[in-house]
């Protein structure tokens, strides 16, 4: 067999192997490059799936102001309620993303410029317990934000919840500074 036939055979085999490997590989997940926004979904059987979050709500207890008088830390005391298919408060295991926007009055979409973003992961039992408030049956996140606000200045808080057990959930609410 000639050298050119060996090289062409080797190239064809190499290309075929590479195509096979790349076709079954999620490059973003395995390489560590980029971010893969997909989470492998776990199917939960009925009737247990009825107890999983079907929607999330930004609770009216949410406020902007002083989080800690001792340390003079300002920010958002954000209360999130996860609701199951019965309309009851329930626990939620997954990842939260919080986005704070300027408020645009008299607009169909009240979100103005993006001001801040926070991410919290409550997939583990320890982290889940850390943020759960038994009295209000909500998750309470203290989001540090050192911007000075005027009394009654309004903002839009957007909450995105992603979990392997439920669909991606969204909530938004207009909140006012103290």
Description:
With 178 residues, the chain is an alpha+beta fold. It has two domains: 1-38; 48-176, Immunoglobulin-like, CATH 2.60.40. The protein has helices spanning 3-23, 27-31, 125-131; strands spanning 55-58, 63-68, 73-83, 89-90, 95-103, 111-121, 132-133, 138-144, 154-162, 169-176. The strands form two sheets. Strands 1, 2, 3, 4, 7 and 8 form a six-stranded antiparallel β-sheet that branches. Strand 7 (132-133) and strand 8 (138-144) form a beta hairpin. It is globular. The chain starts with a helix and ends with a strand. Residues 10-36 have low confidence and may be disordered.
What share of the residues does DSSP label as strand, in percent? 35-45%
Helix content: 10-25%
Q: Which regions are unreliable across 5 or more consecutive residues at pLDDT < 50?
A: 10-36
Distance from first to last alpha carbon: 84 Å
Q: Which oligomeric form is depicted?
A: single chain
Q: What is the top-level CATH class of the largest domain? A: Mainly Beta
Number of domains: 2
Task: Write a compact overview of the structure shown.
The protein contains three helices and ten strands.
Question: Secondary-structure blueprint of this entry?
Answer:
Layout: H1 3-23, H2 27-31, E1 55-58, E2 63-68, E3 73-83, E4 89-90, E5 95-103, E6 111-121, H3 125-131, E7 132-133, E8 138-144, E9 154-162, E10 169-176
Antiparallel strand pairs: 1-3, 2-3, 3-4, 3-8, 5-6, 5-9, 7-8, 9-10
Task: Describe the structure using short key phrases.
alpha+beta, 178 residues, 4-stranded antiparallel β-sheet, 6-stranded antiparallel β-sheet, 19% helix
